[in-house]
TrEMBL record, chains A, B:
Residues 82-204 form the GST C-terminal domain. GO terms for molecular function: glutathione transferase activity. Coiled coil: none annotated. The keyword Cytoplasm does not apply. This is glutathione transferase. Keywords: Transferase. It comes from Chilo suppressalis (Asiatic rice borer moth). The lineage of its organism: Eukaryota, Metazoa, Ecdysozoa, Arthropoda, Hexapoda.
Length: 205, 205
């Protein structure tokens, strides 16, 4: 079945999906749009809810980054079979997205220098100190992964951290050794490493 | 295994979970806090991310409304076994939550009369006209349910509509006959109907 992922030419909500597709050894068409060109009206109108990412497989489409990520995880041996454990990981990814949404990154992208500085300050003084010790603790008590072994929740956290690092020009995981180790683990998975080496580096100005 | 749900004494993000627990015939402790008393610091401090709802089963806890709802659905025969179909329903519930989040209901609850009027206007002129024709179409092409038969996504939509109706004092589904029919279908499921008849009506002033 032909697989296709449409997203921006940036990490954002799409990179953890790309990582998992590569990790699982899936061939897929990696279609990318430049943020600066968005909205491309013809593309936007073709999206069921006007938003990227959109995933296609066998002629059927799926929107919503977490729905796509969870499905790709199920096809890449990154989703445990136990239903309670699946639910715990669902909670983890929603907690990660809560952190992400508090960053108001759309406002940050569009903002002037003053807005950017204020939003960044809030992220570093409020949101990271609230969420990251909790993520660190969950990882630490589970052998460095959210579920005691590699799962999709690990990919989602690393995807969000890499995106935050791109936008803020920092390494937000620095003071959290277990999180920092997980970032390295994911980036060094052989097929992920290979993919990272072949793609162009992302930029944000 | 003893089951317990902690949430506010309101529909909100908790009612579709309560409906599914009743629908599935599960006995559970239905713990409720009054919105006006919130935050109750001792309760808030006991929550892993400071937020309700929190679900407990066999001494283990789970946060995040969608993680809880999906798990309860899996225990109440409201989750299809096909992984693609599961993913399609995941996308549906995220689309419903996108609609919900655009309503900025926390701002609405706290707002003065002018703020309330402006937010309500935006919901009725922008968000409902964008999302509801899409939901209506998805339901209509699938025999009145999001997946051709009753699933958790139907409960999530009805839970959000009932909540919006409580806050806005309207019936936001009126102009969408397939959505309106689904609301009635869920409310008339025997065990749900029985539960609704025994609980106190919700109020918002």
């Amino acid at each position: 079945m032909a697989k296709k992922l449409q997203y921006f030419n940036i990490n954002g909500l799409g990179e953890s999906i790309r990582y998992m597709l590569h990790y699982g050894g899936h061939k897929f068409e990696d279609i990318r749009y430049e943020l600066k060109d968005w909205p491309i009206q013809s593309v936007k109108d073709s999206l069921p809810y006007g938003q990227l990412p959109l995933y296609e497989e066998g002629g059927k489409t799926l929107n919503q980054s977490l729905a796509i990520a969870r499905y790709v995880a199920s096809q890449s041996q990154l989703l445990p079979s136990d239903l309670w454990q699946q639910a715990v990981l669902d909670a983890v990814v929603h907690n990660i997205y809560d952190f992400w949404n508090k960053n108001k990154i759309a406002e940050y992208i569009r903002g002037d220098a003053e807005t950017k500085a204020a939003l960044k300050k809030q992220t570093f003084e409020e949101h990271i100190p609230f969420y990251f010790p909790r993520f660190e603790k969950e990882l630490k008590t589970n052998k460095g992964h959210f579920a005691g072994k590699l799962t999709w929740a690990d990919f989602i956290l690393v995807g969000m951290i890499e995106t935050a690092n791109l936008f803020y020009g920092e390494n937000i995981e620095t003071n959290y050794p277990t999180i920092a180790a997980l970032v390295k683990t994911i980036q060094n998975l052989p097929k992920v490493k290979e993919y990272i080496a072949t793609r162009n580096p992302y930029t944000f100005k």
